[in-house]
Amino acid sequence: MAATKPKKAIHFLPLFALATVPLIMVLGNSMLIPILPQMQEEIGISKFQASLVITLFSVPAGVIIPLAGFLSDRYTRKVVIIPALLLYGAGGVVAGVAAWLMDQPYAVIMAGRVLQGLGAAGTASIAMALAGDLWSGASRAKALGIIEASNGLGKVLSPIIGSLIALLFWYAAFFAFPIICILSAALVYFFVKEPKKSGSKQSPKEYIGALKKTFKAQGKWLLTAYLAGSIALFILFGVLFYISQILEEKYKVADLMRGLILSIPLLAMCTTSLVTGAKIKKNMRLMKILIVSGLALIGVPLAIAAFFNNPYVSLGLLVVSGIGTGLVLPCLNTMITSAVQKAERGAVTALYGSVRFLGVAAGPPIFGALMDTPKIMFSIMAALAGVCAVMAFFLIQVGTEGGGSNPERYEQIAQQQKLLTRRKARA
């Protein structure tokens, strides 16, 4: 029986269902950032302990994502995504009930956040891999751009949503998670028709061997792409945490207004992601140019921000960095998702998701530790973005083996190999 080919046309309902997955995933961090100062006051914790609300969600996700990728390659994407969403929602219930009923809820809230992180491991990166299975060529780039824009939209809306929900009671956001996770799981279950897997399942040894071959052939540019995505999100979430703390401590900005302010650079990133995904199509040379340019746009404003002490100036510069992030991420998504055969796509994409999560996890505590020396903090971050831009320029080799110049190349090879196998079997 012939293998199912990826669909060319984009259908609204499957894409909408998949786009809700990263949107919900990002709510896990961004929705809580505006309420962290209030949480510190309500349960009597330090700034560092508050930052761990973000970290203890992101670190478990980053560690478990590779396993989720393997499971999605071995079985199906939906078998991973749907239970992951339900676990994500359950963690929100644990954290919310602890905040509601316990006098000293911090430890149980952290346990709930760990559960949410474990659930998040099977969400966004697996949704990206599934999009790679469903669509190809320019349709894939467009779909991934929309999914990244959905991720960005979640970042835009979540500070506002978090601030609004906190008007009811500060921990209300935790109870919002199970509702939206169940809705997303239902959408994926009913509207996403996953292509059937063909051929026999690889053993873990064969699977690891295939991954080793992939990284041996393409490791330099893949690792550079991983680093670029991680650093972009590390800087974004770190600066957002920094600005949120300054607005609360120094300027006494109310929760809702703080959420609205934080949404501005995220809106710039979301809009840029949407436009970038629609324009890049299969043009790998353009993707490389946009990645290098985007990293420069992330770094230069940070270097300028080192000489200003006003959070609103920093916010304006962060808008430019948000545009840079919106250029970088859709290009990386398309390159990485198109780089390998379907059989290893889940793992390669999951590793990318893993380092993205770890970047998000590291941002708040590191920026929090450097808050008292903003000039040093911004200078270090600008240097990091600059190093990534240089690495991307030299190590992402467009048009050569390992550069991923033809997004369909690996799928075509896989189809040819399967055809040869069938012919030999008939002979």
UniProtKB/TrEMBL annotation:
Give the transmembrane region(s).
12-36, 48-72, 79-101, 107-131, 143-162, 168-192, 221-244, 256-277, 289-308, 314-336, 348-370, 376-396
The residues covered by the Major facilitator superfamily (MFS) profile domain are: 14-400
Q: CDD domains from the entry? A: MFS_YfmO_like (cd17474)
A single GO molecular function term of this UniProt record: transmembrane transporter activity
Primary location group: membrane
**Where does the record place it?**
Cell membrane
**How does the record say this protein sits in the membrane?**
Multi-pass membrane protein
Q: Mind listing the UniProt keywords for this protein, alphabetically?
A: Cell membrane, Membrane, Transmembrane, Transmembrane helix, Transport
Transmembrane as UniProt keyword:
yes
Xref: SUPFAM superfamilies = MFS general substrate transporter
A GO CC term attached to the entry: plasma membrane
PANTHER family linked to this entry: CHLORAMPHENICOL EFFLUX PUMP RV0191, PURINE EFFLUX PUMP PBUE
What is the name listed in the Swiss-Prot or TrEMBL entry for this protein? MFS transporter
Can you name the source organism?
Tumebacillus algifaecis
